[in-house]
C-alpha cells in the first residue's frame, strides 16, 4: 500500500465507524485501519500517510482500552511535530478528553455553561455541592458517552454514596460537580460541524425512564456509579432514542463555530440545552469524536459521510501543495 496516498484511520471502538469505512469503500479511497489500543511508534520517524484521521474515543477505558487514551496524546503530538496532517489533532483531542478544559475554554470565550466545580478527591464533593443548587451530577473529567455520571438530589444522598466509596472520579482522578439543569422541551441539542462550519443539528430526547442522568451526553448510561452500558447515535433508531433534525438560530451556529475553531476540531459536535428556568442556552459538551446519526438522509436530509470524505479529499490536495498542510482546518 502506498502510504503517501492513504488515509490512516486511527480508531478503537469496533463498531462506530462502520458507515465511515463503507463510504470510503464506495468512493474507492485508499485507507488503512489502525487499532489505537495496540500500536507503537518510533519517535525518530513518522508514517508518511496522506492524512492521519484520529477517531480515538475517550470512553475506551470502558472496553479495557484505557491505555490508548493517554498514548494517543503522545502520538498525535509526535505526528504533528513531524509535519503529518492530523484530522482532529493533539489540541482537539486534549479538549475531547477533558471536561475541565472544555469549561475553561467556554469561559474564556464568554459562553455560558451549567454552574460547576472541579474536584480531585471524593472528599471534596460535598463542599463543592454546597455551593450549587440541587439536584446536581458528578461527572468524571474523562467520561465518554455518559460513563460514570450520577445524579444526586440532596447533600445527604451524596454524603452516603461517598461514605460507601461509590464515587468514581474516572481514570485521571478528576471530576465535575455540576448543577443538573432542567431542559426546555425535554430535549438536548447537538450541533455537528465539519471544517469549522455548521453541518447539521439534532434534537435528542433522552428517555428519563431508562436513563436517570443529566442529559450531558448523546450516549447515555444507566444511573449507576459503575455503569458502562452505551447507546449512541449510530444505533439510536433500533434503541428507540427519539431524534429530530432542526435548524438552530444563527447565534447558536455562530457560537458553535467559535467553539470548534478555538478547540481546533476539524470534525465534531457541540451540545447545549435551553435552561427551562431562564431560557438561556447553556453549553456543556464538546465532542471531537462525532458519530454521525443513523438514517441521516431521512433525519437531516443528506449523508454527512459523503461530505466528510469530500473534506478529507480536499485536505489531501492541500497537503500536496507547498504551503497547504496545517495542523487544523479551523486553526
Description:
Mean pLDDT is about 85; it is low at about 210-230. It is built from ten helices and 13 strands. The protein starts with 6 loop residues before the first strand and ends in a 12-residue tail after the last helix. It has helices at about 20-25, 65-80, 90-95, 100-110, 125-130, 155-165, 235-240, 250-265, 295-300, 305-320; strands spanning about 5-10, 30-35, 50-55, 85, 115-120, 135-140, 150, 175-180, 190-195, 195-205, 240-245, 265-275, 280-285. The strands form three sheets. Strands 11-10-9-12-13 form a five-stranded antiparallel β-sheet. A four-stranded parallel β-sheet has the order 2-1-3-4. It has three domains: about 5-90 and about 305-310, Rossmann fold, CATH 3.40.50; about 100-110 and about 185-300, ATP-grasp fold, B domain (D-amino Acid Aminotransferase, Chain A, domain 1, 2-Layer Sandwich), CATH 3.30.470; about 115-180, 2-Layer Sandwich (Dna Ligase, domain 1), CATH 3.30.1490.20. About 30% of the residues lie in helices and about 20% in strands. By secondary structure, the chain is of the alpha+beta class. The protein is globular and about 60 Å long.
Amino acid at each position: 500500500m502506498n502510504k503517501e496516498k492513504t488515509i490512516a484511520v486511527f480508531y478503537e471502538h469496533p463498531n462506530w465507524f462502520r458507515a465511515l469505512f463503507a463510504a470510503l469503500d464506495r468512493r474507492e479511497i485508499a485507507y488503512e485501519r489502525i487499532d489505537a489500543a495496540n500500536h507503537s511508534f518510533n519517535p525518530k520517524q513518522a508514517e508518511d500517510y496522506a492524512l492521519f484521521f484520529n477517531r480515538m474515543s475517550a470512553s475506551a477505558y470502558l472496553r479495557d482500552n484505557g491505555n490508548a487514551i493517554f498514548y494517543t496524546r503522545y502520538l498525535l503530538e509526535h505526528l504533528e511535530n513531524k509535519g503529518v496532517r492530523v484530522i482532529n489533532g493533539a489540541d482537539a483531542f486534549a479538549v475531547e478528553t477533558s471536561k475541565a478544559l472544555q469549561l475553561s475554554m467556554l469561559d474564556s470565550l464568554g459562553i455560558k455553561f451549567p454552574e460547576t466545580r472541579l474536584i480531585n478527591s471524593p472528599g471534596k464533593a460535598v463542599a463543592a455541592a454546597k455551593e450549587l443548587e440541587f439536584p446536581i451530577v458528578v461527572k468524571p473529567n474523562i467520561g465518554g458517552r455518559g460513563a460514570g455520571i450520577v445524579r444526586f438530589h440532596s447533600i445527604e444522598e451524596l454524603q452516603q454514596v461517598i461514605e460507601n466509596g461509590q464515587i468514581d472520579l474516572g481514570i485521571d482522578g478528576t471530576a465535575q460537580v455540576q448543577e443538573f439543569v432542567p431542559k426546555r422541551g425535554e430535549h438536548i441539542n447537538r450541533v455537528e460541524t465539519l471544517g469549522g462550519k455548521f453541518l447539521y443539528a439534532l434534537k435528542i430526547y433522552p428517555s428519563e425512564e431508562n436513563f436517570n442522568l443529566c442529559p450531558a451526553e448523546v450516549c447515555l448510561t444507566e444511573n449507576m456509579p459503575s455503569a458502562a452500558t452505551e447507546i449512541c447515535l449510530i444505533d439510536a433508531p433500533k434503541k428507540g432514542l427519539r431524534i429530530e433534525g432542526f435548524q438552530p438560530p444563527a447565534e447558536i451556529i455562530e457560537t458553535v463555530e467559535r467553539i470548534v475553531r478555538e478547540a481546533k476540531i476539524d470534525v465534531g459536535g457541540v451540545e447545549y440545552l435551553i435552561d427551562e428556568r431562564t431560557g438561556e442556552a447553556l453549553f456543556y459538551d464538546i465532542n471531537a469524536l462525532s458519530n454521525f446519526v443513523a438514517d441521516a438522509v431521512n433525519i437531516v436530509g443528506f449523508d454527512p459521510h459523503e461530505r466528510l470524505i469530500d473534506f478529507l479529499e480536499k485536505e489531501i490536495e492541500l497537503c500536496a501543495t507547498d504551503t497547504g498542510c496545517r495542523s487544523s482546518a479551523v486553526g
